[in-house]
Design brief:
CATH topology of one domain in chain A: Tetracycline Repressor, domain 2
CATH class of one domain in chain A: Mainly Alpha
Number of strands of chain A: 0
Oligomer: homotetramer
Number of helices of chain A: 9
Order of helices and strands of chain A: HHHHHHHHH
Helix content of chain A: over 70%
Radius of gyration of chain A: 19 Å
Chain lengths: ~200, ~200, ~200, ~200
DNA sequence: AATGAATGAGTCTTCATTCAT
DNA sequence: GATGAATGAAGACTCATTCAT
């Protein structure tokens, strides 16, 4: 049945997310995933074609979850620059609250062979595109001077990612969100904006 | 004997670098490494304790090579800010010329399980420290305003790394070095400096 | 399922008994055991945790079989001394008819490392205890004079084992059972009994 | 040179005795033997043809040592029965003082494959022959009644061996020699002798 | 749909043995 | 004679995948 099947798939993906985040893709066996999702190995292969296929589906599923949050946050931002900042802030905040998600997308995604790198890169590229579009628009609206929008977006994302990865692997800073104000100030200055918005603008 | 053993170890590491970069850690077998280094499997295990141990040694060896170049470049820079720029520029240029090194340190290092992540992080942290020290000094000399030196350094490194990773996985920009002027401009502006040095300063 | 799994385990143990007895623990490969039990290597590892674990299980399984026969024989003996004799006689007879069992329990069990020695010793000790209890009871009933029951039991068992081992390794005497009357006479005299039971007592 | 070579061989054998007794034949590597005898692997192979050859030589060497002591003890015994008792007592005492020797000859010798079993059996057979000859002579001299001398000798040896093995594996009795008086009484009674020698005979 | 027993190709690792120095 | 680096055959064990029930 559609309903049950979907639920089961969801349960497997959630369990797989936990397991892969804890043990890494290479070190995780299908047995572990089966146990974690209270299924049998046969069940896994009914819903997913292979170990790689399951992981790929997981990357997509997790990527969706992240992108959805990012886009939602962007939707309620007043201007292009604020949208870009909202995007980066949301990335930071989401990963801060979902370490497994972070491990999966930022660490495991990269190290497990070409197939996964392509998927992880695609997600990153989508983030870069979202932010790049904002920058492009900000340039068009004259909010900031001309620049290479994609490169700038990539640099910003890279900065955020690096901070998150450092946090993942060392636990510092304790509250990842604390890093964001500094980062935002850097980002704003890097495109010629003052580090803080003009007075009277409330922070989200 | 010392001499022979050292040479053989070097040869194994160089071969392993190539193989791991091409196939990834997980997909590479010790047989392949043995073949690539024109050794026997037993020889590998005479010089390194295990597959993981070999990879760890390789990460250290490759990290050394990178750091040596970075520090050399920094030595000939006139002021703190130039030193930081030299460091980042050298990272970019070195990886640009040694793709296998880049794959190893930026991709395989992070994705292959806890043990390697620690090693890869240590390297990144050493780069951050080098750059952070420059920034600290620049602040002390009044060249730039006060800031969180480590965070800024990490953000810069992350930006560079992201650009390199994107290049590794997509091949763009064709000439990785082309990205650096833009990045440097971003970096400089992000700490309140003009995007270009004063006139009369030749670019390296 | 329970049924299938149990049968398979039994089949593996029976096959392993043959192979280990023929080739010895050290020289036997898991492939050989797999082939002999018409299973796959993976099947072996599904039912047993390791080569050592399989051998340990085998020692226990074989020990059970022996002990069961011994206890059965003891049950139908009229008095304590007869019970002890029945025990030793059954040991001799059982091994005489199941050379693989004898090789396994008397030779391979001892030589294959601490783990197995403990198991083999436990079995021997259980035999000693059975016989020792008989002797104890015989003393209590005044059938024989006071003595160190456990030591005597161990000495008797050792004598029987030595004879069996010699037979295993040299093939003499051709009919192992022929040795028993002499041994029994020795045993009986060693505790002050006449070498043969009083007249009128039928021999089993 | 003869002298040096002999010493080196001796050193290797002594070291090998310790190592094999501690770790067992199967689990011991030539590297360990080399290290324990402060030699190199090459050195081992200069003096002994192979791992098996070394172990075989060791069994012979250790067997010699035991037999020499046994024969020496027998030489000073006044009559056949005393010689047999001296032999068994010496076996017990020697092993009691040289656990490694005991482990080697009684445990490792039997469990390590056909080749070694033959060697270990040969040693046992020589002991049995020594004792059997005594019994034969005792019969001839009319000291004891007619019996199967070899079988009796084997039974006696087996009893002693079993007690030693039990001591090796469980540590009881703490002082192995304490078991001998009881055993001797059993042995004497088993051939129709009184458990103690006539008065006035001092115990060795 | 689900289960878990079964398969077997693939890998890491060990270690006896050799041999150039 | 001695050393220890090198070899490679062999073997334990894993695990993705299949399939009868």
């Amino acid at each position: 049945m559609q309903q049950r099947a979907q639920e089961r798939q969801r349960r497997i993906l959630e369990a797989a997310l936990r397991v892969y985040a804890r043990r890494g893709f290479g070190a995780t066996t299908m047995d572990e995933v089966a146990r974690a999702s209270r299924t049998s190995k046969g069940g896994l292969y009914f819903h997913f074609p292979s170990k790689e296929g399951l992981f790929l589906a997981l990357l997509r599923y997790a990527g969706q979850r992240l992108l959805a949050k990012v886009q939602e946050a962007m939707a309620s931002a007043p201007d292009p620059v604020a949208r870009a900042e909202a995007a980066l802030g949301t990335v930071l905040r989401t990963f801060s609250r979902h370490r497994p998600l972070a491990r999966l997308l930022l660490l495991e995604g990269l190290g497990g062979g070409r197939r996964f790198q392509a998927e992880a890169t695609a997600l990153r590229q989508r983030c870069v595109a979202l932010i790049g579009d904002c920058l492009q628009e900000a340039v068009a609206q004259g909010l900031i001077g001309p620049l290479d929008a994609e490169l700038t977006a990539r640099a910003w994302l890279g900065a955020v990612v690096e901070v998150i990865v450092h946090w993942l692997l060392t636990g510092r800073p304790q509250r990842l969100e604390d890093a964001y104000p500094h980062l935002r100030a850097l980002f704003r200055r890097s495109v010629g904006l003052p580090p803080q918005e003009a007075l009277g603008q409330p922070l989200p």
